[in-house]
Amino acid sequence: MKRYLPLAALLVMALASFCFAQPQPSASPSPAAKPKPRISKAQLLKQLSAKETQLWEAWKIKNAKAFQANLSADSVMIGSGGVSGKADSIREITSAACDVKSYSLSDWKLTMIDADAVLLTYKGMQDGTCAGVTLPAAVWASSIWIKRGGRWLNFSHQETPVTP
Predict the structure, then answer these.
(1) Which of 24, 25, 36, 153 is at 20 to 30 A from 71, Cα to Cα?
(2) Is the CB of residue 135 less than 8 Å from the CB of residue 129?
(3) pTM (predicted TM-score)
(4) Which CATH number is 39-161's, of 3.10.450.50, 3.40.47.10, 3.40.50.300, 3.40.190.290?
């Protein structure tokens, strides 16, 4: 038993020095390591309402590239024809079947779902036709935007005609 006592003491001292060791002062963090300041809700509303408006303009002028860049790969679009994914939505949105003369967007509201997802709601006024059918003059719209890879992407969009 006595011959193991020095070994046990050495083990206790080693563990104690490990457990109670003081952390070494680190070099000052580089400017690149500073976290970015969080964007305010008002700034985010301004940013995403501008992106949403860009998508309406892309719909008006049939610009598929804008939708390709701003819709998430797993997007879910809901319209009068049902539910569709990104490729079908882009094909439908940019088809020659729609003629949009004008639009305006108002009554914006942003609801935070979490730090990387928001619900954007607003009212859209539009003058146009799709496949010869007059578009509803006014719609309530909702879009879910998600942040992936540092970019905000449209995950889902839906519109409901305003009833008089």
Answers:
(1) 36
(2) yes
(3) 0.76
(4) 3.10.450.50
Cβ contacts of 105 within 8 Å, gap of 6 or more? 49, 52, 53, 56, 122, 123, 124, 125, 141
Rg (CA), the chain: 28
Residue pLDDT, tens place only, 6-57 = 444 433 444 344 344 444 544 545 555 555 557 899 999 999 999 999 999 9
In order of 54, 108, 123, 130, 138, the CA distances from 104 in angstroms are 12, 12, 8, 17, 10
Q: What's 85's DSSP letter?
A: -
Cβ-in-10-Å burial (0-12, 13-18, 19+) of 71 comes to buried
Q: How far is CA 140 from CA 2, 3, 22, 35, in A?
A: 85, 84, 60, 37
Where are any strands of DSSP class E within the chain?
Answer: 71-79, 82-84, 98-114, 117-130, 133-134, 138-148, 151-161
pLDDT at 1: 47
Write down the pLDDT at residue 37: 58
Query: What percent of the chain is modeled with pLDDT above 90?
Result: 66
93, 84 Cβ separation under 8 angstroms? no
End-to-end CA distance of the chain: 94
Break the chain into its structural domains and give their ranges. Answer: 39-161
